[in-house]
DNA sequence: GATTGTGATCGCAATATTACGATAAAAGTA
DNA sequence: TACTTTTATCGTAATATTGCGATCACAATC
């Protein structure tokens, strides 16, 4: 297999998993952090900051765009990437909804 | 390839990515939520709650245990799984450290 | 000592991910 | 039109992940 059975899980669980995937690779964490702190924005600048080939960075950007957490604005010959504020907020809320509902137990 | 170049990223970025992986699959989100809300604890109960085979659930539990976000206590013939509070807190802090440092921009 | 209940592990198949060189695409510039 | 710059995409290779049936391991119980 290798294919996740998304259809048997709730939409919320699938969405949380998808948003978590955005952060589930160190390069993507680095990209998101650079964009969030506005230390970079243009694709080429991100490539300069990251120890990865241009093709690889572009691929990660594509995945982040697919998830929706970033958006790109073409500014020939450059492309400027930015955090999608609404989705960023969605991530905060969904992660919070899971992480904040932990009640310590004495079960084990 | 298929192998992440962890050595070229910071420890923090790698750790965030690893913790995010815990949430990067809907089954694991469901497991973590069940444990956080204490609606299940024993492995068998988790299997009953999830639409996956026992072997698959066990594998996800192993991965969560490897990451450290859950711990298991053997209680023959059962095994009781619980959230590792310290790591749960670590996740909250690290995710927060990224998600809270977003300053809206007017770049694009 | 055989049986039972519970969970871990093995082995396999299928798909996904990561990485990168090479090349294409797009739009401006000479 | 040719050239340059920047980014996307293609193709490929290697490794990782997901899923499950079958089996193993362990301790309790009969």
TrEMBL record, chains A, B:
Q: Where are the transmembrane segments?
A: none
- Keywords from the UniProt entry: DNA-binding, Transcription, Transcription regulation
Q: Which Gene3D superfamilies match?
A: Winged helix-like DNA-binding domain superfamily/Winged helix DNA-binding domain (1.10.10.10)
- Pfam families of this UniProt entry? HTH_5
Q: Which PANTHER family match?
A: REGULATORY PROTEIN ARSR, TRANSCRIPTIONAL REGULATOR, ARSR FAMILY
Q: Which residues form the HTH arsR-type domain?
A: 8-106
UniProt source species: Arsenicibacter rosenii
Reading the lineage from the top rank, the first entry is Bacteria
Mind telling me which NCBIfam families this protein's record contains?
A: HTH_metalloreg
Q: What is this protein called?
A: Transcriptional regulator
Q: Which GO terms describe its molecular function?
A: DNA binding; DNA-binding transcription factor activity
